[in-house]
Amino acid sequence: MKDVARLAGVSTSTVSHVINNDRFVSDAIREKVEAAVISLNYAPSAVARSLKLNQTRTIGMLLTASSNPFYSELVRGVERSCFERGYSLVLCNTEGDEQRMNRNLEMLMQKRVDGLLLLCTETHQPAADIMRRYPGIPTVMMDWAPLEGQCDLIQDNSLLGGDIATQHLIDKGYTRIACITGPLDKTPARLRLEGYRTAMARAGLAIPAEYEVTADFEFAGGFRAMETILALPERPHAVFISNDAMAVGAYQALWHAGIAIPGDMALIGYDDIELARYMTPPLTTIHQPKDELGELAIDVLIHRMAQPEQAQQLLQLTPELIERGSA
């Protein structure tokens, strides 16, 4: 910047104003500075700027990779919201591995991200010694139980969603209703199962123990879980599946078995991924507002960065029934 100022015959602050366009500079001076910038092939240093401002305009996100399209659709909303607000997103995949999660967390902290979004796993929490080394980093957690401290939490009302899904099947006249649930070490899976049980109890419908099948929120898990249900001596007539990825796997298992949807077995999913509307028949499901979730997460994080002492926030999004052809 000093070289540009020397060549243009102006001060470094004038060069800064021209580059950042944050103060009036006459056209003649601006042309001199821009000519010097081109002549010297000058590019501003983001590192230098971040050191001066103590702000990098970057947000770090820790995510467990999955074949479940829900996560890619959610990240798309987060990245779009970052871009619209002038931030860059650094995305790290933990692969469900605690060591990798902590190494990525340390890397993000060392790069001095302005804030963190966490969407990984409840069974592996960030190492306490890392969090102590970088105190006060603004953090928003999405859809899982919060850490101790000043962290905001945004989640889907999974209890209500499971209730709505099951009640829809009951309203359609089904009485033998099974549930394929996600891993029960995850809060959303537990709450969706509880919502299923609540709706069944309210309707006075029994739940045989074998009608609750635990899977892993992935395509293959849904396939295997449906195979387990099909092997039962008394099959259910309808199944609430705790996410759409498993519902896709369940469709495949039913197709292999020659079982028609919804004629022989009705299905309802959860998440409303984009693929759901293109399945045959289109999947009835519970809509999670993924774009709104991403936008809200970024807005809450930016607000937390501006007001770090504010009390912890718990924000809950309301699920909605999307009725299509599978029930």
Automatic annotation (TrEMBL):
The record's PROSITE patterns line, in alphabetical order, gives:
HTH_LACI_1, HTH_LACI_2
Q: Provide the alphabetized UniProt keywords.
A: DNA-binding, Repressor, Transcription, Transcription regulation
- InterPro entries xrefs: HTH_LacI, LacI/GalR-like_sensor, Lambda_DNA-bd_dom_sf, Peripla_BP_I, PurR_sensor_dom
Question: Is Ligase found in the keyword set?
Answer: no
Q: Name one Pfam family in it.
A: Peripla_BP_3
HTH lacI-type domain ranges (all copies)? 1-53
Which N-terminal stretch is annotated as signal sequence?
none
TM ranges = none
Q: Is Transcription found in the keyword set?
A: yes
Which NCBIfam families does the annotation name? PRK10423.1 (NF007743)
- What is this protein's record name? Ribose operon repressor
- Which organism's genome codes for this protein? Siccibacter colletis
Taxonomic lineage of the native organism: Bacteria, Pseudomonadati, Pseudomonadota, Gammaproteobacteria, Enterobacterales
